Automatic annotation (TrEMBL):
Residues 155-278 form the Polyvalent protein metallopeptidase domain. Residues 290-301 have a biased composition (Basic and acidic residues). It comes from the Bacteria. Signal peptide: none annotated. This is Antirestriction protein ArdC.
């Protein structure tokens, strides 16, 4: 992949992506939410690079979801160079989308006679183009037929059961209780559809992944505080990643206060969306690891997926 040219070195990519996400949130709809019910469509496919064969994950899946081409039916994205090497041509005037990864940068600290080395992450940004913006790209072919909705719901049920997290039924709220390590769900008939119920229980399973003996996140937040908002943002993004993998809805209804709280958190820290997306990717991996098919197909983090943005990181 080809990095941006030197003139882009001064760009603050943390700021740019954060502002783009905030702009969408301020419109009232999270940019990662699909404008249709995937349970009624052909099999969904996450954005992927047809040259490397890898799916774009974490913050890159989120960054590509901001593009108006994100849900155009073709999941293929690639760099200008990758297209050219295969005899394909990005059409003149086409505007690409930006994806990221961290490259390790080794620095040398000289203190007297000591020569210490330390490694810090360098954020690199690349432009990728959608297949519809490129001439000569082979046709994608007919999409895979989607499996029946009951089978997709069965996948969700299998995952919840295999996770070992207890689910209790009753009441009018869905939530995960960290103290007792269980999920509470309303009766099935309270949901608009079985698919909506599956989306909700998987969302709560995302919260359950944060228990100390699992992924060990801070679950001490209370509604309205920063820790709560951060955790909800992670579970929301994880719902998107899991929903894309299972071809199930990922839209768990949120009060407008949730979206406003996410905007507040993102405005206070331009690197938070990178950390949230990386954590959400780990949550999705943990959830899907409980399914024999999806668990085996999950690739480990690669150079195409940034890790959480640390405090000491450079942008280029």
């Amino acid at each position: 992949m080809r990095p941006f040219k030197h003139e882009s070195a001064r760009r603050d990519h943390y700021q740019e992506l954060t502002e783009a996400v905030i702009a969408k949130l301020e419109e009232g709809t999270p940019p990662w939410r699909r404008p249709w019910d995937p349970s009624k469509c052909a099999a969904a496919t996450s954005p992927m690079n047809p040259v490397t064969g890898r799916s774009y994950r974490g913050v890159n899946a989120l960054a590509l979801a901001l593009s108006p081409l994100a849900f155009a039916g073709d999941p293929r994205w690639m760099t200008y160079r990758q297209a050219g090497e295969r005899g394909w041509q990005v059409r003149k005037g086409e505007k690409g989308a930006i994806v990221f990864f961290y490259k390790k940068l080794e620095l040398r600290d000289r203190q007297g006679d000591d020569d210490e080395r330390r490694t810090i992450p360098l954020l690199r940004a690349y432009t990728v183009f959608h297949a519809s913006q490129i001439d000569g790209v082979p046709e994608l072919g007919a999409p895979m037929a989607a499996r029946p909705v009951p089978e997709r719901i069965a996948d969700a049920d299998l995952i919840v059961k295999a996770s070992g997290v207890r689910v209790e039924i009753g009441g009018d709220r869905a939530y995960y209780a960290p103290a007792s390590d269980h999920i509470r769900m309303p009766p099935d008939e309270a949901f608009e559809s079985p698919a909506a119920r599956s989306a909700t229980v998987l969302h709560e399973l995302g919260h359950a992944s944060g228990a100390p003996h699992r992924l060990n996140r801070d679950l001490s937040g209370r509604f309205g505080d920063t820790a709560y908002s951060r955790e909800e943002l992670r579970a929301e993004l994880a719902s998107y990643f899991v929903g894309s993998a299972l071809d199930l809805p990922c839209d768990v209804p949120n009060h407008v206060s949730y979206i406003q709280s996410w905007i507040k958190v993102l405005k206070s820290d331009t690197r938070e969306i990178f950390r949230a997306a990386a954590d959400a990717s780990r949550i999705a991996d943990w959830i899907l690891s409980h399914h024999p098919d999806h668990g085996e197909s999950r690739d480990p983090a690669s150079e195409d997926e940034p890790s959480p943005a640390p405090t000491e990181a450079l942008a280029a």
